[in-house]
Write a structure and sequence with these properties.
The protein is of the alpha+beta class. Helices cover 22% and strands 24% of the residues.
């Protein structure tokens, strides 16, 4: 992804074309204004971006976010950036009187199609829902625990998207869900397979 990125009226444009917008007839956002001070990175926990979008479209689920990045590197928008999405849950950032509590109203949520932690079963690596992940898509953290890898196309698209979006919105920082979730340890996303990319994005943005 090397096309110019722009935001108009809370909607994302790449190469002067609005990215696909997933319109949900059931409103899934809170009233109020999103200050867009942070970008929060997540993984979906599923094998495909479509399964995540099905969850978003399900009227019984209480979850929403702003952007999805598929394993092919395709970007979809679910909510305009001014909307307060339900992606952070119980969360906080900072300390003392300046600490922010409830990060939904301060942030943009970016979901990446990724299963997260895996379990070894009968010589295969499976998701929490029992789906088998090919060995070529499996990586290991420093403790030897298996996780689904992000695809190269996905990482490249995510880095370009988030870095440029951060510059346009002039956010204060780019964070992982695990960094803001309360209590500490409640969430693991975007996981160790994304951490180097996130660190690179934050460093590049801080120096830009």
């Amino acid at each position: 992804m090397t096309q110019p990125i722009n935001v108009m009226n809370g909607l994302l444009y790449i190469n002067n074309q609005q990215v696909p917008f997933l319109d949900n007839p059931v409103p899934k956002y809170s009233e109020g204004v999103n200050t867009c001070e942070y970008i929060i990175c997540h993984y979906t926990g599923g094998t495909t971006v479509q399964s995540a979008h099905n969850t978003y479209l399900d009227p019984t689920t209480q979850v929403s976010w702003h952007l999805s990045v598929s394993r092919d590197g395709d970007v979809t928008q679910l909510l305009s950036f001014d909307k307060v999405a339900w992606h952070a849950g119980a969360s906080s950032w900072g300390t003392g009187p300046q600490a922010l509590v409830g990060m939904n109203k301060y942030s943009i949520g970016v979901e990446h199609s990724n299963c997260g932690p895996l379990t070894e079963k009968n010589g295969a690596y499976v998701t929490a829902f029992g789906q088998v992940v090919p060995n070529i898509d499996v990586g290991f953290d420093q403790n030897g625990n298996p996780w689904q890898l992000y695809s190269p196309q996905q990482l490249a698209a995510s880095k370009y998207l988030i870095l440029n979006l951060a510059r346009i919105l002039k956010v204060k920082d780019i964070l992982g869900h695990e960094q803001i979730a309360t209590p500490i340890g409640r969430k693991k996303d975007p996981g160790p397979m994304y951490w180097d990319t996130l660190a690179d994005i934050r460093k590049t943005y801080a120096n830009s």
